[in-house]
Amino acid sequence: MKRGAAALFASLLFAGLGAPALIAGADALQKIDAAVRELAAFIQRSLPDRKGQALAVPPFLSDRGERLELGDRLASELAISLARLYNRTRVGPAGAGRTFTVSGELVPYPTQVRILCRLLAPDGSLAAGTRLDLSLDSELAGLLAAPGQEESYQGMGLPELDEAAARDPLEPDNTPGAEVEVGSASAAFQRYLSPGDVDRFRFYVAQSGPVALEVLTAIDAQLLLYREGERIPFEVRGNPSLRAIRLETSLEPGYYVAELLAFDPDVEGAYTLSFQPAHSASTADSFEPDNTQEQARPLAAGTSQQRTLAPGDQDWVELRAERPGFYALHTSGLAVDTTLTLYRDGRVQVVSDEDGGPQGNAYLGFFLGPGRMLARVTGKPPLDSGPYTLIFESLAPVQVVPGAGVREIIAREAPLFLQVRILQAGRYLIRKQAAGGPVQAELYGLPSMKALNSSGLVSLAVGDYLLVLKAGEGETVRFCLAAEAEAEACRRSVQE
Predict the structure, then answer these.
(1) Are residues 212 and 278 in contact, defined by beta-carbon separation less than 8 angstroms?
(2) Judging by DSSP bridges, how do beta strands 315-320 and 373-379 pair with one another?
(3) Residues 82, 87, 91, 97: is their CA dihedral positive or negative?
(4) More exposed terminus of the chain, fewer Cβ within 10 Å: N or C?
(5) Are the beta carbons of 31 and 140 closer than 8 angstroms?
(6) How far is it, in rounded angstroms, from Cα 240 to Cα 96?
């Protein structure tokens, strides 16, 4: 999915949910428990359980950016519930690797409290969202206060502090109507974000086209982009590098509002925010245009290409090798969540992968024979655009034959590739097992790379086959290949 589609997806994310569920008729504890169950189920549906990723659950804040007793309790209970649901994903503070964040906002109304829950991708973009309502009673209203305070939460908007105005002469700008006006197509602002502060900017787009907003700062902040008059942002970016936030998107004519705020309301610091037209994909990727099969650029074995996926983009390459053999095609980088798809003659899909390689990158292993072989690279939301490296190199699968007994192989970040050699036609059993989880197997006939069934007893002709095994990194995979007469012994040996 590209940036244009991502913007539409984000803007419709909450609107398409219909009326939120109303949790009523229970005491405060029961309402909190019911809300946590719904939120945990939503997050589990939205974020697959994968090794190498983390899930952070900071306290839910009020719509003014303040901590509330209710927000602290919801976040604590939700973190415990998610830790029970996820096995591979680490639930806890943000750390190394791909960290998703559950961001919650509490919006009080006279008779109920609305919970807006956003799942933010590692780059701060909006991955998914949901909302639900809690009916308000005196017990729940007492939790709408800052931790350790007895006053109930009241009012709307963020009050400005005199100290903040002294540090930043553009204050106050926290409430609708008080935004800093961006008067030119290219503008920059040097400002200071105070504790609990939200800085708002209003700008006008005269004609459709790309726009880039960039924040240079060392604070853990997030940049949100709204259509004027809307309360739900359609673009969100974080600052995982603690160096810069860049939000590049294509906008239709109209007024927009950008907000900058810290993840932690106690954080403060200086920043520079700039607005400018974004560069086109052709300036960021020297291989453009390559959006169609006819425009596919050559990629030689043993080489790599530095590329960029832009909004609405897909990259096509033609794989070229001096001789037939086994090869691997894979991506690297953390900016884009890539999908690789291989096509024979540009028409027949051979194989595809999304996250089989290191750090969730796409990784394909295959036999390259006669004929024209093309590959397509696309991005998946929410990390659907940005720079990546495409690598095409030789592959040396381990050769296996039936009757060789049980083999133990340590799974790495990339899939395991085995060259199966059958010397006598018949029915064969492919048995694989790992203690820590399931092992996925894919079997391909050579040289055509035709996908075959790999479960149960499989009829195989004389020849070579490519077997791909996928397991969690570091797992010990026990593998056995046996003819039908030895199938039962193979099953028992693998299970020992």
Answers:
(1) yes
(2) antiparallel
(3) negative
(4) C
(5) yes
(6) 10
Contacts of 404 (CB under 8 A, 6+ apart): 481
d(CA 307, CA 302) in angstroms, rounded, equals 16
How many whole angstroms separate alpha carbon 362 and alpha carbon 468?
Answer: 14
Do residues 417 and 365 make contact, with C-beta atoms less than 8 angstroms apart?
yes
Task: Provide the angle, in degrees to the nearest 10, between the axes of the packed helices 28-46 and 69-85.
Answer: 50
Q: Does residue 160 surpass a pLDDT of 80?
A: no
Q: Is the pLDDT of residue 96 over 80?
A: no
User: Phi and psi at residue 13, in whole multiples of 5°?
Assistant: -55, -45
Q: Which domains does the chain have, with CATH numbers?
A: 3-141 (3.40.50), 170-278 (2.60.120.380), 282-394 (2.60.120.380), 398-495 (2.60.120.380)
pLDDT of residue 20: 54
Q: Is residue 410 exposed (0-12), middle (13-18) or buried (19+ Cβ within 10 Å)?
A: exposed
pLDDT, tens digit (0-9, with 9 covering 90-100), for 264-314: 888 888 898 888 754 444 445 788 888 889 999 999 999 999 898 876 689
The Cβ of residue 153 has, within 10 Å, a number of other Cβ atoms equal to 22
Confidence of residue 436 (pLDDT cuts 50, 70, 90): confident
| CA 287 – CA 307 distance, rounded (Å) | 7
Q: With contact defined as beta carbons under 8 Å apart, do 2 and 313 qualify? A: yes
Per the CB < 8 A criterion, the answer to whether 18 and 54 are in contact is no
